[in-house]
Amino acid sequence: MKCYGKTFVVDTSKSPYAKLRSVPVENVQLEDSFWLPRISTLHEKTLPSQHRIFEETGRIFNFQRVSGKKKGEFKGLYFNDSDVYKWVEAAAFALANKKSDELYKLVRQTLSEILSAQDCDGYLNTYFSFEKKKERWSNLRDMHELYCAGHFIQAAIAYYRAIGEKEVLDAACRLADHINKIFGPNGRTGTPGHPEIEMALVELYRLTGMKEYLELAKFFIDNRGKGLIGGNPYHIDHKPFRELEEIVGHAVRSVYLNCGATDIYMETGEKALLDALLRLWHSMTEHKMYVTGGIGSLYTGESFGMDYDLPNVTAYAETCAAIANVMWNWRMLLATGEARFADVMELALYNGVLAGISLDGEKYFYVNPLADRGTHRRQRWFRCACCPPNIARMLASIPGYIYSLSSKGVWIHLYVQSRAYLDIHGISVDLFQKTRYPWNGEIEIQVQPEEEATFSIYLRIPGWCRRPRVFINEEAAKQPIKPGEYLEIQRLWKPGDRIKLTLPMLVERTVCHPYVMENHDRVALKRGPLVYCVEQIDNPEFDVWALVLPPNSRLEARWDPAVLNGVVVISGEAYAVDMKHGRELYRVEDRSHIEMHKVRFTAIPYFAWANRNQGSMTVWIRSLISA
Amino acid sequence: MKCYGKTFVVDTSKSPYAKLRSVPVENVQLEDSFWLPRISTLHEKTLPSQHRIFEETGRIFNFQRVSGKKKGEFKGLYFNDSDVYKWVEAAAFALANKKSDELYKLVRQTLSEILSAQDCDGYLNTYFSFEKKKERWSNLRDMHELYCAGHFIQAAIAYYRAIGEKEVLDAACRLADHINKIFGPNGRTGTPGHPEIEMALVELYRLTGMKEYLELAKFFIDNRGKGLIGGNPYHIDHKPFRELEEIVGHAVRSVYLNCGATDIYMETGEKALLDALLRLWHSMTEHKMYVTGGIGSLYTGESFGMDYDLPNVTAYAETCAAIANVMWNWRMLLATGEARFADVMELALYNGVLAGISLDGEKYFYVNPLADRGTHRRQRWFRCACCPPNIARMLASIPGYIYSLSSKGVWIHLYVQSRAYLDIHGISVDLFQKTRYPWNGEIEIQVQPEEEATFSIYLRIPGWCRRPRVFINEEAAKQPIKPGEYLEIQRLWKPGDRIKLTLPMLVERTVCHPYVMENHDRVALKRGPLVYCVEQIDNPEFDVWALVLPPNSRLEARWDPAVLNGVVVISGEAYAVDMKHGRELYRVEDRSHIEMHKVRFTAIPYFAWANRNQGSMTVWIRSLISA
User: Fold this and answer.
1) How do the domains of chain B map onto residue ranges?
2) What pTM does this model have?
3) Domain A405-502: assigned CATH number
4) Is B386 a catalytic residue?
5) What is the 3-state secondary structure (H, E, C) of A366-387?
6) Which A-chain residues 484-523 have CB contacts (< 8 A) with chain B?
7) ipTM for this model
């Protein structure tokens, strides 16, 4: 038997109510031209540059100050420790996938600084030290102590799984034990203002088998809706969790909370939790999610809006919220094995999340509008810098989201050219995916079991796909192939067996629910998992906000290696209407001045916008209607 | 010489830098079928019902508690006194226009309760009494003490002008003197978190001639931008007033502040103030005002949004903000005599303001969306009840906004069937307007000087009008008649002279600046000063959000006495598109299912929406574009 890694993104291998078990990051080697270059950039640019900024902004200093190595005032925001933890987690995933002495040294050194700042009682938070020590655990709603603790625990778990050094994990257990001494059925009551620790504690339980961590996570969920943190929807404290109907509040908090609740469900099987989660999922996907998978439409409170409140220009759609959306749908997928969760996960990952980082890997969006007049640009950093290290850990862990295992076999969620080394009931099975996905929907999967074996391969047939085709060793699959479901292929697999999956990638005109008034008479172009936008730089002859796509315009997709490091662009014939208008906000329509002229337009994937010269952009394009 | 009233809305008769002087409310007797029935409803329903609610909600009790008449805790919000003051001001204007013993008794009794609650040092605020007394003037930013004081002073001025009893005015002066002892060049520094007192103090200066009140108002303006109240744009404290470029912050605060600054300008002539005011006016009208004259588009902070951020469904557009818009433009008009301010004033009055009250005069909108799915309805009251008494005082003072005087003659701003009794250079001139405005643009003005006299009559030619015509005694006016300007008719006026003004009221299709993405390919119907909307109840055969107006659809305007107490409805042929869509937010466009069928539609004035059965509504209607 080969030696497999253990750097799971979420380890459900012993979770009694999870349908699927995940596959460690180490076991999947990317060989593609989409994600692999991004992960290389992560190694070479993103992670080193983020660490440099940690040094520059006092984030490392804060730990050194507490350990006594340096003197001075605490620097930055009170939850800045969490950025460092997320970076450690990202680096751990990165190291699991690709060894690097340099990166290892940087992480080890960072962890030394962190660990030196831990109190002997297990407490760890550089803000609440010295004169602030007496304020520890006094304001769970606002001060993000449990949030920071959760991120440290997650970082420690990823590091332990990737590197195998137990010291950091022990520190995380000491912190968790410390929290468990203070809170819980026998301690103080409470629940965090910013959820995060719930999923961390469940994962720590999965790793250590210590049931009290699971119980503490459940305790925090059970304490919601009691008014302990103000009773407001913003904090998702207005109702007990199991009674929630509508997804509300700060989007990242809301969806991190759902992640924790899903993790608890996978351990306890409590139906009331799953029922609530499904209601929240419907509320989100049917009323409150952008076509990009972005969530949390409002600037106010970085929160979910009312149903159908999805403005384009003033979309908030925080990068962290799209990441949370991936994390939650991943957990729902593990819990249920249902493809609808993989569909949302893929959508958010390729669009809402990926737009959050520049092609050069060193600039970030916090806010992700769906239309812009050229003023919104990625920044090198933010004072509140939750998004940059969060996108780093998401990118670093991509190999862990491609496959899962179940009692019957292997599930393929994402199509990425890669080699996977799997253990199916004790039999080594290598899977080689050959594909240019997401640019092309032709996927060839070579199945290489160490010996002939009967098991199932579940192919995800994306919900966006029409007329998918599957061949096994040149022979068409016999069962119906349904988009939005997994196709189970159970057979005696022999070394060298080949699956050929064709997911035709048509350029699709997507329309929005008519209750979103802003998107009336507009279409968004999609192709495969990618949402497209028109950006000014590609369309110098007209204002992209003036573009009107007639219904029967032929739309072509074409690989262009010269654009944005190589993307498939969509182009076609359309019209541009007159955008002339004076300074006045309103004027009487002057029919004699309405002009519309034929133009050729080019659209690019949304994730790649704002990487070139400034200019307008829109995802939703006016579409021609005529009587 | 006849005896004229003195209940000015703003008394600029001695203001050296005002172009125009206003005409007291008493001097204009409405005889129309638009405003007069509303003012009757105000007398019969609105004012009595509001007073009843004051009794029910403890607003009167709060005064009785401080005077020792009753015992118990302060009830409601800390600024609830201001609602009572606004009501007194409304009642004073109402009494100026139409005597009523019953209303007079109610006001007098209310004023007794108020005056009994005033401290011997002049202080008046029922929240800051007893145990809260030590907190007086300790938090100018949040506690609305100066705001409440401003409203008391305005109420007292209006009451004194209307009724002539000096006791209440003396109380207002005592309060102003008390404030002047505490603040000002020789006292404490400070500026109010909620502007209001500035215009009250200037008006008190105008009435009493006491210059310290004007200086104190200027002191409060001069103190902005120094960080005394936090330095935030929300409070318009981020910059010195004279350096402001963009209108920002809480809309009512922002525009009340501009009212105060305009009042100060009219007394001091300071150019830097006027320059700032003009910049703010351009910022508002060119980037941040709804087509209804509503302002403050954001729920967040009830504030102005970024440029072109004017959502329809989630419009905030507080009724008080539209009222503030009228008040500010009125002052700018008095200061400059420029018709553009009258245009905005009229627009906001007939649309943004008037939508704030139900036809029965007892229900109110706080928030005024421009599109709705049938859930937004007027309420009998609000916990924060600033809007109901504010709209009452606006309606009660309407007769005062119709005319002004200048050194050369009389200015007609609004067209309303009415009789006005004016004093032009010591000569009594009666003006009788005969018109069905706003339903019809035919206006006949009979000029009745007590003797032949040479003076000018300035007719406002509204900016919305095309091809206006003016006849004097059947003879066409010779000078060019320009919409958006005043037409000066200077001549020897004889008793019985007649002006015939025709402002053709076409149904106009209004388009919006293309930077407001939500209004792309939409038109708003306007006719005369009125903005129209389509409401579901008038259009049972299709969803009003699905209505598409083709460019050449003939639109008819027709008086319908059966609808909404009689309104001019607009109707025509149009199309309705398919609104069928599943639960899903997004789906692939299915061209074979797009249906569009011919319909007849009916539109009603926006101000009258939501007075019948619940249903959808939109101001901006999809408009057909075709290549």
Assistant:
1) 21-401, 405-502, 507-623
2) 0.95
3) 2.60.40
4) yes
5) CCCCCEECCCCCCECCCCCCCH
6) 508-518, 520-521, 523
7) 0.94
